[in-house]
Amino acid sequence: MAQQLRVLQSLWAMERRLADEDEWPLQTQLAMIRDAGFDGAGVRFIDPAFAREVTSFLGAHGMIWQAQCYPKRVDDLKPVLELVAQLGADHINLQPDVRPRRLAECIPLLEGWRRLATDAGVAVHVETHRDRMTTDLIFMLDLLDCFPDLQLTADLSHYLVGREFAWPVDDVNHAMIHRILDHAWGIHGRIASREQVQISLGFPQHQGWVSLFTDWWEYGIRSWRKRAGPDATLTFLCELGPPPYAITGPDGRELSDRWDDALVMKDMIRALWDRIANEPQGTLPR
Q1: Which domain holds residue 160?
Q2: Checking DSSP bridges between strand 124-127 and strand 40-44, what pairing results, if any?
Q3: Per residue in 22-75, pLDDT tens?
Q4: Domain count, the chain
Q5: What's the superkingdom here (predicted)?
Q6: Domain assignment present for 267
Q7: Is 119 among the domain residues?
Q8: Quick check: 39 and 233 in contact, CB under 8 A?
Q9: 1, 28, 61, 96: which has the fewest C-beta neighbours closer than 10 Å?
Q10: 256 class by beta-carbon count within 10 Å (0-12 exposed, 13-18 middle, 19+ buried)
């Protein structure tokens, strides 16, 4: 069995948030994700009833899911692990919902979450995200010094906005992002600019940012393929969030169609994976 890519769609990204139109019913959202050819979904494992309904649908259609959670304390992970034991999951995506100023405050939390995950036999990926333990790129790199084997979910949009890299991005900043990607066991897909955490893939003025993220994701895929086992699965979650992530005009409506962008992103990352997978063995990350 060869290494595989599985492209998921975020259920949070299915929210419309239109003042004059109803939200799509959950079963409609799930059918859209299935019919569009996604391999699964990102599912909040905070509401057990919601998680059961979603995973029942996904499982019935041969799809997979990542279990998303936002613990503040070590023990907050326990009910999530219990729910995963019942419903399954490819892995847990953990956003550490704390904001320590010192590395010493992070260590017991990460050690505790990792211990619980190991005891449960469940893979846990710690997500890079603003307003979380992982909010700052430099701080995150210091955390990796403390935990060289820490498995991350790389959402690079937060670091581009948070650090506001100069354009073009220089080698020093590329190297820091590459180090994050060298610890990434999953990727969340969103394209940012220096000033905006989410921009449309299709606008002509955004193509430089699209190319930047495509290059970073290519590096991440190549790095993962070197580190992962021969039958491992890499997940890429399309996570184009609703307003205020999505940019809106004076009428409150979005300037682009996030669902269409998610479909483009899905096909784009699959094409990138196929190109890399069809190269001769031993190609190094660039």
Answers
A1: 4-275
A2: unpaired
A3: 999 999 999 999 999 999 999 999 999 999 999 999 999 999 999 999 999 999
A4: 1
A5: Bacteria
A6: yes
A7: yes
A8: no
A9: 1
A10: middle
